[in-house]
Every structure is written in C-alpha cells, then in structure tokens.
C-alpha cells in the first residue's frame, strides 16, 4: 500500500465544522499510500474541526477553493460533519470545484453528510450512493439511488455513512484513486 498513490495529488475540500476523524483518517490513508494530500478550504488560515459537536483541533489550509485548480489534482475527498458540507454547498467556488472532478471523470470520495455538497454541484442524478441516513430523502429528490451500505462505489464515486465505516471507506478510496479516471 505504501506506493499505490505515488505521484498523485489529492484534494481534501473542507471548512469549519468538519468531522475531524472523517478528515484525518482518509488523509492518513492517502499519505500512507504515497499520495500528496492538500487541504482546500473557503478561506486561508486554518479550519476548526469537530468531534461530533465538540471543538477539536485546527488544521492549516493549503489553498483556498477560489485559487485551487481542480485539474492539478488526481482525486477529491469530501469529509463530513453537519456544518462543513452545509457551508461548502452554499459557496459557488466550492460547488464548481466539486463539479469539475465529476466532469473530468476523476475519482471522488464522500462520507457522512458530504453528499450535500454534491447535490448542489448537480452530480448525483442517476448515481447509487450511501451517506448519513438523514440525507436519504435529499439524495432521492436530487435523482440519486440511496443504499444503506458500509461503503458503496459507483463509477469512481466512493461513499460511506459514518465514522464506523472509515476502514472500508479509506481502503476503497485509495483503490479508486490509484485506478485514476473513470
């Protein structure tokens, strides 16, 4: 696993309110596989992570989403938390950034509430995915087919429901990112 992502650059799109474990564990998996992880966010500086509803650590932003070039990345990770994707989906630059990965056929991994951002990017119609259960109706209304599975892969899109699913999610995202465009 140490070199599967050698030479690959993976964007992690997150902002204040990100569920810490859903950012940290996938980032560790990408780096352990030899990939280069970069935190892309709405503003420069650092973002405030949370452990459920409690503040946790802060993480330095590498580049703002307004300045980030999606073509420079090989894959995208969308961590969850409730506040994080809700803020991202309201930002036009973040929505464009997410859509660009789908338009280019690049692999994307999203966990928990992260599919909210994908709904606003208009990229879930006709896809099968999983998420935190409360997003089921939102995803169905956006044209997606929701399944209650630990991890689901649909043509390069890796989705999982919650932190308990992280082992399967991390393994699959490394595999999909190693495979490249779909």
UniProtKB/TrEMBL annotation:
<dbReference type="InterPro" id="IPR006286">
    <property type="entry name" value="C56_PfpI-like"/>
</dbReference>
<comment type="similarity">
    <text>Belongs to the peptidase C56 family.</text>
</comment>
<protein>
    <submittedName>
        <fullName>Type 1 glutamine amidotransferase domain-containing protein</fullName>
    </submittedName>
</protein>
<dbReference type="Pfam" id="PF01965">
    <property type="entry name" value="DJ-1_PfpI"/>
</dbReference>
<dbReference type="InterPro" id="IPR002818">
    <property type="entry name" value="DJ-1/PfpI"/>
</dbReference>
<dbReference type="InterPro" id="IPR029062">
    <property type="entry name" value="Class_I_gatase-like"/>
</dbReference>
<feature type="domain" description="DJ-1/PfpI">
    <location>
        <begin position="8"/>
        <end position="176"/>
    </location>
</feature>
<keyword id="KW-0315">Glutamine amidotransferase</keyword>
């Amino acid at each position: 696993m140490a070199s599967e992502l050698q030479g690959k650059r993976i964007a992690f799109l997150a902002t204040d309110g990100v569920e810490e474990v859903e950012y940290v564990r996938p980032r560790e998996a990408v780096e352990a596989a030899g990939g280069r992880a970069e935190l892309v966010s709405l503003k420069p500086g650092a973002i405030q992570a949370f452990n459920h509803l409690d503040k946790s650590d802060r993480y330095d932003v590498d580049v703002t989403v307004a300045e980030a070039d999606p073509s420079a990345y090989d894959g995208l990770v969308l961590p969850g938390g409730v506040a994080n994707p809700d803020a991202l989906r309201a930002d036009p630059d973040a929505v464009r950034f997410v859509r660009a990965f789908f338009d280019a056929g690049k692999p994307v991994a999203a966990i928990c509430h992260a599919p909210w951002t994908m709904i606003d990017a208009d990229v879930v119609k006709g896809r099968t995915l999983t998420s935190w259960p409360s997003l089921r109706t939102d995803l169905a209304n956006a044209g997606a087919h929701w399944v209650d599975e630990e991890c689901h892969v649909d043509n390069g899109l890796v989705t999982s429901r919650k932190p308990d699913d992280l082992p399967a999610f991390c393994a699959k995202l490394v595999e999909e990112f190693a495979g490249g465009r779909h």
